[in-house]
Amino acid sequence: MRGGDRRRKHDAAAQREPGRSPAAHRGMHAGIPRGTVSRIRTARMGNRATQPRRRRLATRRQAAMVMLDLAGFLREHDSEVLKIRRPVPLDHVGALVGEATSTICFDHLVGYPGWRLVDQLFVDRPAQARVLGCDPAAVVPTLAQVLERGPRPLQIVAEGPCQERVATGDDVDLSSLPIVTHTDRDPYPYTTSFAIHRDPETGQYNQMNPRCGVLSRNRMVTSFVTPTANAILAKHREAGTRMPQAVVIGAHPAWELAGVYSHPHKEWWELELFESITGQPGKMVKARTVDLLVPADASVVIEGFLDPGRLATDGPSPGPTMLYTPFSSQQPVFEVTAITMRAEPIYRHHQMTPFTDHQELPRLFHEAIIYRQLAAQGIRVHDVAFPQAGGALLCALQLSPAFDGQVNDALLLAMGSSFLNTKMVVAVDPDVNIHDPRDPLYAMAARVRPDRDVITVGNTRGWPFDPSAEPITGALPDTADTRYPSLSARWGIDATKPPQHRTQARTSY
């Protein structure tokens, strides 16, 4: 499927949808940082020489009973997971995930006995609701409550399932992991799970979701995609030191959700939202070869060091706008010092092609933050979404405006948010399903008078992934490579019916 048959299939899909490229259809004391120390509880076993064996074993069993993990999550939601039981070659996974519309699990991977592979854990509202333990309609309000509860302390445990098997030195071999080549245009297979770093000056932990492309048995190239991670890398570059990194694969999905929180925050780690999401403390264990903490329940942890002075080509790759991003850049090489894993590992894949977790997961907290801001204005808001069909450039607001003026305020708030990708904002009523592209299109066609209900604002910040944005040449040394900063425009569309008090006018809608 990786060759001509797969290409013809996707090219045919592209012909069915004019304006879309064929690629658009193809299928983030030592060890405890300052600033975080007050937030991390220690759950050590005590002195093994003096602690009674019976008590030690009981403590371990108790810890195991309350530790959430991906395997348990999949068991709990077994009936809602699409299972592929036939053996599947790894080269076919990307295309099959791209065709899946729900959580998908491959039970048998050709050449990788004992492995399972899962994807699409956040692909739509029902999948997201499973992670949050709520109804699909309540995903964004529930995430808003997570933010209100805020970060909670993490627990450090002495050992965890993520280190049941350990490979170091010459035993490190990335080819032993079922790392997927996402499309037939990609230069190498790559992981897209979250990576953990720590600021060498403040000790503050940070998480990002990079691509880590496989270069050899123990080397990868890591894309630095967030300002905080780049700032940490710059400190190591200036100091001439290697940067520790741990890539976490196959942890409970609540870790992934916590880690994509990207709004400005100080003195706490994104992963500290785990307990506010699940109701149970997040358990961490010390990595084996780097001075970092990692989720104890993970299936795989890839440990090592980044050399800021040793670079390799990252990209090209699919982008969040559902277009294949033709750009490449020089990024640091990741020297792998250890691969630790569970005895029965589950590889968590994140397919980067359209209509996958790649569009949904990074935007979830954006939706909750905008939801909270709208509610603070006194607007009755039901849902906020970045629909997949909008290529991460469209934000939909589902509102019940009480009187004239509220919708424009809502549009302007979302358009002017701290997120660069609110290029197009559409406000609709509760009778419009913002997760079905047919509904908002109908509302825009039937409920909008363009001369009255459309707001445009020029000369605004643009999103680097937006192909229509214009990079501001000379603004920063690397603008030509990163397209940041860019200049664009924004528009808001009021596709709501007249407010409730205008009873007569509403009868026409």
Can you offer a commentary on this structure?
With 509 residues, this protein is α+β, with helices and mostly antiparallel strands. The chain has 16 helices and 25 strands. Strands 6, 7, 8, 9, 10, 11, 12, 15 and 18 form a nine-stranded antiparallel sheet that branches. Strands 20, 21, 22, 23, 24 and 25 form a six-stranded mixed sheet that branches. The chain is globular and about 75 Å long. 46% of the residues are buried.
List keywords for this structure.
about 500 residues; alpha+beta; nine-stranded antiparallel beta sheet; six-stranded mixed beta sheet; globular
Briefly say what this structure is.
The chain contains 16 helices and 25 strands.
Q: What's the structural blueprint in terms of helices and strands?
A:
Elements: H1 4-16, E1 40-43, H2 53-66, H3 70-76, E2 82-84, H4 90-99, E3 104-106, E4 116-119, H5 125-132, H6 139-149, E5 154-157, E6 165-168, E7 190-191, E8 194-198, E9 205-208, E10 212-216, E11 219-222, H7 227-239, E12 243-249, H8 253-259, H9 274-278, E13 283-286, E14 293-295, E15 300-314, E16 317-318, E17 324-325, E18 329-341, E19 346-348, H10 357-360, H11 364-376, E20 381-385, E21 394-399, H12 406-415, E22 424-428, H13 438-447, H14 450-453, E23 454-462, E24 470-471, H15 479-482, E25 486-494, H16 503-506
Helix pairs in contact: 6-11
